[in-house]
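Suppose you are handed only these lines of text.
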Amino acid sequence: MAHNLLQGKKGIIFGALDENSIAWKTAVRCVEEGAQIVLTNAPIALRMGEINKLAETCKAPVIPADATSMDDLSNLFTKSMEHFGGKIDFVLHSIGMSVNVRKGKPYTDLDYDFFHKGLDISAMSLHRVLQTAYKLDALNEWGSVVALTYIAAQRVFPDYSDMADAKSMLESISRSFGYHYGVKKKVRINTISQSPTRTTAGSGVKGFGDFISYAEKMSPLGNASADQCADYTVTLFSDYTRMVTMQNLFHDGGFSFTGVSQSVIESMGE
Ligand code: NAI
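From them, the structure of the protein bound to NAI can be written out as follows.
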């Protein structure tokens, strides 16, 4: 059910890989709510071709950008402003990748080249995106930027490995840049800490299936779905959350503040 919450707004959506992607669902919801969008992803991800379906549904151009390349990002923001005929109101950063996790390297035996790459793609890319927008003055006043994160930034989930460190850095960048962009342009920057969700990135984590069931049992409301994450993100792009910035917002059915649930206790047996 749409409410025109984003009527007249213009945004860039990073990270729609396939229809399970949180960014895919968010792109669709933003357009349903009246926004115009530009879709972007790394050139290698675009070659898979799936995004063209989404582009058709959303009537959106696709502009390739590797989020670790300043030239690509500068081109993306410049072309997007040309396309919209003006500045941008919202940006979704929905990007994550750890080569160590993908290759099953345990946290005590990390490869540092992989670690470096993972930090650049999953965390520093947010700084790169924000700095590009800041220097080009590409965002309108009261613009909104959301990045997706996971609770492993605060608490240990052993198989999340170096992605946990990347997420801590991502959340920190959102706070730090949130200060500077808030002062300069009243732009707000927040992270949404989402429940485990079945997507390409999520499924790369060892034991993900069992882990989703555990989180489901631990959360009073159950796990939040990708569609629900898209709904929440729309509210953060809307004018109803103008004074929310520099926050890490848990969207996890109550998981983050539950010590233990009856359902988990019962599953332990005696
Ligand atoms: P996904 O695999 O659909 O999306 C990850 C995206 O990152 C892909 O579109 C991929 O092409 C893009 N990407 C990778 N390297 C890139 C680069 N160099 N430049 C530009 N884009 C690049 O998976 P999902 O789950 O939708 O991930 C979106 C975000 O949500 C990630 O930040 C992830 O860590 C976060 N998240 C996911 C959870 C889950 O359980 N799936 C839980 C909490 C947060």
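What can we learn from it? The mean pLDDT is 96. The CA atoms of residues 5 and 240 lie 9 Å apart.
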